[in-house]
Amino acid sequence: MISLIGFTGAGKSSLGRQLSSQFGLLCFDVDALIEEHAQMAITQVFATQGEPAFRKLETEMISKTLQLGVKGVLVTGGGAVLTPDNRRLLQSQSFVVHVYAPVDTVWKRLREDQSRPLLKGPDPYLALTTLFSQREHAYDFAHVKVDSENLYESASIVMAKWLRFCY
């Protein structure tokens, strides 16, 4: 399994879809799995149950997906790496890819997005840049780091490195 980690808005979902279409891999999105399990949107899970409950569901979905043992792509949420169990699971049971985008690129992608619970508040840009700097090194455990600007090229790099990792 290839696991994609990175900051919110870095391009993990887009790269996951690219890997899926370019190489025929199954793609599992942790946030979508949580929404299906909880039968509510991520923003509702945060609002009604809080971040700790969300993080618990996140760990459950990561663990269950990795246990499937299929060749596929697991797209995690930006904060998944904050939970030590998630880091341990991802690193021990998958090939971990840090999908990177500079903070200004992330801001351009997310400034109109109202669905990001951690970016709510009076100054979303300040919240974003603060969170970005706090999490800057949280993704350092990845096996490889790729930029999300050219998805086709990044998918090819990930696949080549994953094949070397596996064999």
Features:
167 residues, alpha/beta, Rossmann fold, five-stranded parallel beta sheet, 5 strands, 56% helix, 13% strand, globular
Question: What do you see in this structure?
Answer:
The protein is of the alpha/beta class. The protein has one domain (2-102, 137-162): P-loop containing nucleotide triphosphate hydrolases (Rossmann fold), CATH 3.40.50. Helix content is 56%, strand content 13%. It has seven helices and five strands, in the order βαβααβαβααβα. The protein has helices spanning 12-23, 30-38, 42-67, 84-93, 103-110, 124-135, 151-166, and strands at residues 2-5, 26-29, 72-75, 95-100, 144-147. A five-stranded parallel beta sheet has the order 2-3-1-4-5, sandwiched between helices. The model has no long low-confidence stretch (mean pLDDT 93).
